[in-house]
Amino acid sequence: MLNLQNIFKNKIFISIIALCSIFYISSYLILPFATADTTFYTLIGRGLLQDHMLPYQYVFDHKPFGVYVLYGVWDALTAQLPIGKFTVLALLCLAAFAAMARNIWHTRWLWVFGVLALLGAPFELLAGNTETLLITTELAVLWLARKGIRATIQPTTRILWLLAAGVTFGLTVNINYLEGVCLFLPVYFVLLANTRPVLNISLFAIGTCGGLAALFAPYLIQGHHALADYFTQQHQFLHAYSAKLSKRIKAVLLLAAYLAVFSPILIKWFGQKSILKTAPAPDTTLLTLWFISSVPAALLSGHAFSHYSGLWFAPLSIMLVLLAQQKGTLPIGALVPACALTLFSGGQEIRANLALHQNLEKIDYAQIANMAAGQKVLNIRAHHAHFYMANLISADRYLFRDHIDIVFKKQAVQHYLDDLAQHPAFVMLPYAGCQTGAIEQPVCAVLQNHYQQVYAVRTVHKKTRHKIDASDLSFELYKLQN
After folding, report:
1. What's phi and psi for 5, nearest 5 deg?
2. Is the dihedral of CA 264, 269, 272, 275 positive or negative?
3. How much is the pTM?
4. How far apart are CA 185 and CA 462, in angstroms?
């Protein structure tokens, strides 16, 4: 019977996989960004690092503080890298993930890295979104905690490792709150299933509090209810953003479909004697609990976004490699559904990336930046990525194109009119927004009377699976008339 070990030893197979991988990864590396989310996090990070404006004093998004710090720092470090910076970040994260997995479960580094980078295509792990950071920091917490509970000879070493695990947890749960859900079972297992559990939990908790205190220290220093305002804005938006029942059903169906595709791997994993029939090794249980905790985390938002499934795919990728390393355990047929999905998703991603690259080439961001010259630009339902690419300054806290509609609902038009009453120097809106009805007539009337169009671009529309539809990048820019 063919198994993965024999397949991986086949040089022809390896060569084909390598060529496809290079083409697939390169389609990401030619882009300045591959998903809209990363540009938004970076915009807030720039405001934080360059203008010392805490979230959400400049631009609002519902993600926690830590994500903006990370993307802001990465943007500053890669300022001279015009393309591929978020994919490079993703590749570094996946490499670190594979290294820690090898240390804990004795997996082969390249196998884990390859499974994440290639079989992770349906979950857009190479786009550099928060899920790629999240799976790496989750494993870092588990790795540090595991090191701590095993440092029994030197008590001081044990204390330092567990404190470091707690600090890392406190910091990285603020990349995405879902990390707390993903790590709930595995962290408690590590801390409770070993000697001196009360001490373990206490040290981890102290470290967590220390990490949170360090992260939110700027808010505490600023005072004037700054921290309370931060959480209030999050709560208000998340309440309005909460998905309807129909969207939650779609999210459940999408997750079920993905799990069905990878079910042959899960059946083999949970069918092992070491899982169900005899006492499993602690590290095996740790991996299983991590997977079990991550599945519901992918559903919590209620929105059917594929990248959320990267949370449970991370521990599954280690399961797959562990099974592959056991000769005869995992026949190649078990991977056929996953490989078919990967080929389809990878092809769609390549097509979408090339379309995005083609359309970004049509936009002269240098000209837009020169025209704006540091003046405020009001965004009315246009794509926020233009603000990232041209380093524009938003005239409204709600820059993301649908946030004003989410927050203000029927009062959105009035909010835009109030913004226009402040006479922002520039206004950006979707291409032909007034002609197509994408922008309401009262707003269009103000633009017609007081603004003049100075730039417009219409990108090519191509139907793709990608979150950034090519047509979304079309826009018009208007300048205030003197």
Report:
1. -60, -45
2. negative
3. 0.90
4. 43
